[in-house]
Every structure is written in structure tokens, then in C-alpha cells.
Write a structure and sequence with these properties.
The termini are close together. This protein is α/β, with parallel strands linked by helices. β2, α2 and β3 form a beta-alpha-beta unit. It has helices spanning 18-31, 46-55, 82-85, 97-101, 107-119, 132-136, 140-152, 157-160, 181-199, 201-206, 217-224, 241-256, and strands spanning 6-11, 38-43, 62-65, 91-94, 123-128, 164-167, 208-212, 231-234. It is globular, with a radius of gyration of 17 Å. The protein is built from twelve helices and eight strands. α1 crosses α2, α5 crosses α7 and α7 (140-152) crosses α9 (181-199). The longest helix is centred in the last third of the chain and has 19 residues, at 181-199. The protein has one domain (6-254): Aldolase class I (TIM Barrel). It binds 2-phosphoglycolic acid (PGA).
Length: 263
């Protein structure tokens, strides 16, 4: 099995202006070592993508868009397309719970966005996860199934290799509530099983799966230790240089350890 690179993504959401983003990355760049087995990605405001793309060393950091529209160009006032982002970002978040729940993005739109990203050579980070209500009703497996089938419909096996899946239980995002590692393990198992069902065993082994939801420096290592977890999608702690640096450091330690690649 090919080794899956660790991936740490900082989702800055609607925080920091262009200047603050630039200062932040300047400070972070002094703290983060370039490590061939760990990719560090930051997802700033759309406005900062262009200046940060000129500022960063791409061996150290890569950029992700937080959002985009699925059409490549045309009369869509106020929107930015994956075509316009192409070359600027390596990754893009798709189906983040805030997009699903605050902006009512549904599976069909999310599927179109996954395809648009792939078409424009941007790696989609497809976010999936159940709400507190769905969890209490015992619907987690079904929700993950529907979101994966919905998000990956029309994707070929070849295209799948550029896709990352992030498991983010909605109730753990921005709430400080920690998902139990055993529950995350089960969810990752469900996700890989679903990918296996759709694309086969090799694809299920190769795809990178992240965990996200209130990850902090003191919990990062325990999530990274979960078999089948390849990295973290971090919100709140990624806009604090010190906290984000510590989280990245825990991925470096995992990548160095001999069992780090075991599923
Ligand atoms: P959080 O956000 O780390 O603040 O919970 C995670 C996310 O929204 O991806």
C-alpha cells in the first residue's frame, strides 16, 4: 500500500483580514518545519488567497479555498469559480457543515462542486458528518453513507485519488465537545467501507481521511493515533499560531513513528 501523507488543514473561516492573514503566516512560517511526510494547508478568507500564494513557500504550506461555485464562468454575480481558483490553491473545502447547514447546500450542489474542483485540478476535501440529532437517533452510518454516495457520484476511480474525506461530526464543530476516539474509529471504518463498496479495496486503502471538530493541541495526538485517520481539519485552534504549531508538530511525530502508516 502506498504511504498516505499526513495532512493538517487549518480552516480560518471568516476570520482575519488580508493583512492579519499575512502576518499570521509570517509568524507560522518561522515555527513550522518542512517535513516530507506532512502537508500543512491553510484556508484563509478568499481575499487573502492571492497575496498568500505569493508569500508562502509551497513546500511549507499549501492553500485551500473555503468555498467556490460549481460553474466555471458566466453570469453568477458574486461567485468565484474553481476555474478562477485554479493555480492559486491546491485544495478546496466542499460540503463543510457550515455550508450545509447555514447556507443550505444540498448533496446535488456538493456533488457538482466536487466535480468542478476535480475538473479544475483542485483537490476537494469532502466534509461529512452527522448532527447531534442524527447521532442520538442512531443514524450516523446512514448519514455518512448518503453524504459519501451523494458527494462522490460521477467521480471516476482515477479522480478519486485526488479526493480527501474529512469526518466532522457537526455537534463537535466549534463547540469544544470532543468526539470519542472509538466513535471516530467507527465512522472512519464506515467511510472506508463505503469507498470500498463504490471504488474497491485499493481505493479505500489509498484515500486520505481526516478528523475535524474542536481539535486542540492536547487532543490532536489522540485523533492522529486512530487507525485510518490521516490528518486533521482544524478550525478555532488554527487561528492561534502557537496552538496550530503544536498540532502540526504532533503530526510530525506521528509521521516519524514506525506504525504511522498502519490502517
Ligand atoms: P473547530 O472547527 O476546530 O473550530 O471545531 C472545525 C471545522 O469547522 O472544520
Amino acid at each position: 500500500m502506498a504511504q498516505r501523507k499526513k495532512l493538517i488543514v487549518g480552516n480560518w473561516k471568516m476570520n482575519m483580514n488580508v493583512h492579519q492573514a499575512s502576518v499570521f503566516i509570517h509568524h507560522l512560517s518561522k515555527k513550522v518545519a518542512v517535513h516530507r511526510d506532512v502537508e500543512v494547508v491553510v484556508s484563509p478568507t478568499m481575499l487573502a488567497l492571492q497575496p498568500l500564494s505569493l508569500q508562502i513557500d509551497r513546500r511549507q504550506f499549501k492553500l485551500a479555498a473555503q468555498n467556490f461555485y460549481f460553474r466555471d464562468h458566466g453570469a453568477f454575480t458574486g461567485e468565484v469559480s474553481a476555474t478562477q481558483l485554479s493555480g492559486l490553491v491546491d485544495y478546496a473545502l466542499v460540503g463543510h457543515s457550515e455550508r450545509r447547514h447555514v447556507f443550505h447546500e444540498h448533496d446535488k450542489l456538493i456533488r457538482d462542486k466536487v466535480q468542478a474542483a476535480v475538473r479544475n485540478r483542485i483537490k476537494p476535501i469532502l466534509c461529512v458528518g452527522e448532527t447531534a440529532h442524527e447521532r442520538s437517533e442512531g443514524e450516523t452510518t446512514g448519514v455518512l453513507h448518503d453524504q459519501i454516495v451523494g458527494g462522490l457520484a460521477n467521480i471516476t476511480s482515477e479522480e478519486l485519488s485526488s479526493i480527501v474525506i474529512a469526518y466532522e461530526p457537526v455537534w463537535a464543530i466549534g463547540t469544544g465537545k470532543n468526539a470519542m476516539p472509538d466513535d471516530v474509529k467507527k465512522a472512519v471504518h464506515t467511510i472506508r467501507n463505503q469507498v470500498k463498496h463504490l471504488f474497491g479495496e485499493a481505493a479505500a486503502q489509498a484515500i486520505r481521511v481526516l478528523y475535524g471538530g474542536s481539535v486542540k493541541p492536547d487532543s490532536a495526538a489522540s485523533y492522529l493515533a486512530i487507525p485510518g485517520i490521516d490528518g486533521l481539519l482544524v478550525g478555532g485552534a488554527s487561528i492561534n499560531v502557537h496552538e496550530f504549531e503544536l498540532i502540526i508538530a504532533s503530526a510530525h511525530h506521528r509521521a516519524d513513528s514506525p506504525e504511522a502508516w498502519a490502517l
